[in-house]
Write a structure and sequence with these properties.
Blueprint (H helix, E strand, L loop, with lengths): L12 E6 L4 E7 L6 E8 L3 H15 L1 E8 L9 H17 L3 E5 L3 H10 L5 H22 L13
Parallel strand pairs: 1-4, 4-5
Antiparallel strand pairs: 1-2, 2-3
Helix pairs in contact: 3-4
Length: 157
């Protein structure tokens, strides 16, 4: 299955989004798109408050595009969560006017959990940070791919 290709800004700050129905991990990169950093974990409240948060975030952080993680099945099929993420991406565009590209996020949360396990902090503190670290990993992968998202869903075999 292929995603339709759209035009994305060549310069400016990107926001990586680790979508969740309760919490959304957010990461940002510098305007030169060299370094991605964890930014925030937004706890969803209501559609109106969520829209306000993202519009304010875009304006204050000068974001030009979102990169949204797609939790694909191992065989490359879109999972129900990936379909939810795509619907959220369409909503983000509607609310902010910014384009959304998608990136395969398989194992980003596992990788984030592994990185945080090496840090001396309580399990509660690690769990509180995992979503924004996963967003940072997702955004870093996107930048390392030359700012090109996943357009063909493939199996990991």
């Amino acid at each position: 299955m292929e995603q339709t290709q759209q035009e994305f800004p060549k310069k400016g700050r990107l926001a990586g989004i680790d979508y969740g129905t309760v919490r959304i991990g957010v990461a940002v990169c510098d305007s030169d798109r060299i370094i991605a950093s964890p930014f925030d974990i937004y706890v969803r409240k209501s559609e109106k408050k969520d829209a306000e948060y993202f519009r304010k975030f875009v304006q204050e952080e000068r974001i030009v595009q979102f990169v949204l993680g797609l939790p694909l099945h191992l065989d490359g099929r879109l999972s129900p969560k990936a379909q939810e993420a795509q619907a959220f991406g369409a909503w983000l565009t509607e609310q902010t006017g910014l384009p959304v590209d998608y990136m395969d996020e398989r194992f980003t949360s596992v990788e984030a959990s592994g990185l945080l396990r090496e840090v001396k902090m309580t399990l509660k503190k690690r769990k509180a940070r995992i979503d924004k670290i996963a967003a940072q990993i997702l955004l870093t992968n996107y930048i390392e791919r030359g700012c090109q998202g996943t357009t063909v869903w493939q199996s990991l075999d």
